Amino acid sequence: MTAPPTRGKTTQQLNYIRPYPGFDSINEQITEFMSNYNGLQAALQKRIGTHSLVNVNYTWSKAMTNAFNDTSPAQNTYNLVAEYGPARYDRTNIFNANFVYDLPFYQTQSGLVGHVLGGWEVSGLVNSYSGLPYTVTGVLNDPAGQGVLDGNTAVSGRPDLVGNPNIASSTSGPIHNNNGKQLWYNTSAYAQVCPTVGGVTTCPTGARPGNSHPGSVRGPGLWRADLSLMKNIKFSDRINMQFRADSTNTFNHTNPDGISTSYTSSLFGKVTSYRDPRILQLALKLYF
C-alpha cells in the first residue's frame, strides 16, 4: 500500500478518513440541539400620590444549551455533550429600577414664589446586570489526529481549559492594565491543543478537539444610572413650558463592553471597547 499523498511536505490528505470521500469540509445546519432556561423573576411597584411611582425588577436565571448560537457549529458533531454550556444570552443577574417623583409643594404655582418653587420633577433609571458568556476560539486543531490543521471549515477550534479563566469577572474587574488595554480574564487558563514551537504550529498524532466548553468566559456586566431634573411652568390652562436636564451614565461609571476571545490575537483577553461615558443634555419644550 502506497503512502497517502501529501499537501506540501508534511501535511497528509484527510480524504482517506472523510465520511464523504472527495469532498472538502461540508457545513450544514440541523435541528439536533437543545436548550433550557430556569429563572426567578420579582417585581415591586409603589405609587406615591397621583403622579409619582417607583418600579423595581430583578431576575435571577440560568440558560444552558449545546448550540451557543445559530451559526457556530460544534467542534465534533459526534459529541454534542462537549458543546453544553451557557447560552449566548445568559445573564445570571438582571436588576433595574425606575422612579418618577413629582415634588408635592406649590403644585398650583400661585404667585411668584409658586412659579419659582413649584413644578419640579425628578426621575431616574438604574440598570445593573452581569456579563454575557464568551467562547474562546481561534485555535488550530486536528480532530482527526492526522497531523493536518484543517482551516477550510466553519468550525472554530477551542483550546484546552487548564485553569479558571474568570479570576477577573464583571464583579471583580480586570486583572491588570497591559499597554493601555485592560486584561479582563485569565488567559493562562487556556492552552493550545496543537502547540506552536519556533513559530510552527503542529498537531501531534492523536490530537483532539479542545476541552474548553462554549461560554467559558464571563464578559463585562453593566452598572448605569440615568437621571433627569424637570421644571414644569404653568402659564395658563392651555400653555405650559418644561425645562429639563437629562444625564445618561450620570456618575460616569466605566463599563467595559467588548473583549477579545481569539486565542491567536495580540489582544487576546483584553478589553477592546467601552460603553458611553456620561452624556448631558438640556431641553426646553413649549406645550400649547
Q: What are its keywords?
A:
mainly beta; eight-stranded antiparallel β-sheet; two-stranded antiparallel ribbon; 2% helix; 36% strand; elongated
Topology:
Blueprint: E1 6-7, E2 11-12, E3 35-48, E4 52-65, E5 85-86, E6 93-102, H1 111-117, E7 120-129, E8 133-134, E9 160-161, E10 176-178, E11 181-183, E12 190-191, E13 196-197, E14 200-201, E15 217-218, E16 222-234, E17 240-248, E18 279-287
Antiparallel strand pairs: 1-2, 3-4, 4-5, 4-6, 6-7, 7-16, 8-15, 9-12, 10-11, 13-14, 16-17, 17-18
Sheet-strand content, in percent, reads 35-45%
Backbone CA Rg: 28 Å
Mean pLDDT: 80
* Overall spatial form: elongated
Question: pLDDT below 50 for ≥5 consecutive residues: which ranges?
Answer: 1-12
Characterize the main sheet.
Answer: 8 strands, antiparallel
Number of strands: 18
Helix run count = 1
Oligomer: single chain
Which percent range fits the helix content? under 10%
Query: H/E series, N to C?
Result: EEEEEEHEEEEEEEEEEEE
What structural class is derived from the secondary structure elements?
A: mainly beta
End-to-end span in angstroms? 93 Å
